[in-house]
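Page 37, continued from 36.
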């Protein structure tokens, strides 16, 4: 037997074994009585061959690290591994458990965080919700209105979803995906799966507007939530929003340095919406003008309270003249 023949034979054996393993795996995952060649998808890796670009976006997203992020794990430990919190960081498919029901913690593969199947797997267990129906596609995508509804996100983002429901009337206050999953022109009916939000500087900065005016002996700073359809900042508990004002006189000497909290730390089981800026609303802060000179103001956003001012995102910064 020549070496070439042995190599070809070995390749054929591996090919046959691979096929048998694939069939066995498919049979094991195929729901009993399911029609046709449907597959009960059980991993984001199943989606990758056909949806490489979307998979890449998801892999780079915060959803992908919703369970494995060290800050998340530290929070779990701090709060005693509360199942109510853990469930949204590695949820069972929400279309299976129901949009009106609390999220349920996935039994395995939790390191994947919020996966493709968390949002797309249909209740039958072997079809996927999609923006359009493609009958001959391997995953049997079926157009589902649920994907365009804010309630899909609201299963886990409950406080933000409630904020959004209480938003002012008007077309400018759009749904979650319009801001966080914008359309991708090169992908038919497709949207970005990076799901940018509170960790993205451009997204945070785009939500607010800062205006300064003088009233008698006071400098008034108005911070307006002009674009977020929910309260700003949008996360609960540990997001901080601080306005800092530094005044100097004509000689350059500091006459006032003050920080005012717009959003501070909130209790784990509660949330003070009064501390945050509702959609379309403004909050005004007043500072005395002690001497003529200049004032530098900075709007600082912190993801976590233990971060220093130097680590905060500067949402807005400007210098105004004081006369």
């Amino acid at each position: 037997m020549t070496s070439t023949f042995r190599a070809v034979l070995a390749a054929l054996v591996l090919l046959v074994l691979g096929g048998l393993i694939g069939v066995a795996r498919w049979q094991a995952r195929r729901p009993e009585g399911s029609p046709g060649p449907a597959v009960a998808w059980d991993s984001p890796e199943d989606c990758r061959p056909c949806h490489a670009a979307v998979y890449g976006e998801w892999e780079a997203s915060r959803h992908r690290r919703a369970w494995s992020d060290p800050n998340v794990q530290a929070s779990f430990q701090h709060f005693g591994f509360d199942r109510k919190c853990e469930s949204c960081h590695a949820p069972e498919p929400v279309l299976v458990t129901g949009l009106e029901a609390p999220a349920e913690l996935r039994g395995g593969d939790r390191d994947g965080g919020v996966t493709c199947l968390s949002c797309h797997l249909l209740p039958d267990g072997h079809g996927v919700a999609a923006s359009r129906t493609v009958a001959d596609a391997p995953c049997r995508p079926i157009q589902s209105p649920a994907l365009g509804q804010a309630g899909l996100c609201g299963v886990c983002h409950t406080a933000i979803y409630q904020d959004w429901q209480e938003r002012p009337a008007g077309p400018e206050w759009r749904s979650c995906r319009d801001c966080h999953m914008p359309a991708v022109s090169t992908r038919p009916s497709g949207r970005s799966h990076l799901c940018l939000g509170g960790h993205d500087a451009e997204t945070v900065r785009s939500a607010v507007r800062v205006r300064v005016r003088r009233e008698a002996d006071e400098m008034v700073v108005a911070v307006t939530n002009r674009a977020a359809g929910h309260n700003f900042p949008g996360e609960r508990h540990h997001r901080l929003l601080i306005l800092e004002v530094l005044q100097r006189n004509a000689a350059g000497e500091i006459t006032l340095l003050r920080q005012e909290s717009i959003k501070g730390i909130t209790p784990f089981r509660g949330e003070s919406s009064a501390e945050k800026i509702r959609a379309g609303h403004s909050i005004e802060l007043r500072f005395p003008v002690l001497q003529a000179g200049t004032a530098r103001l900075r709007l600082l956003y912190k993801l976590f309270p233990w971060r220093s001012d130097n680590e905060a995102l500067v949402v807005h910064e400007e210098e105004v003249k004081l006369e």
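The CA atoms of residues 245 and 297 lie 4 Å apart. Flag for discussion at group meeting. Residues 11-39, 269-273 have pLDDT under 50 and may be disordered.
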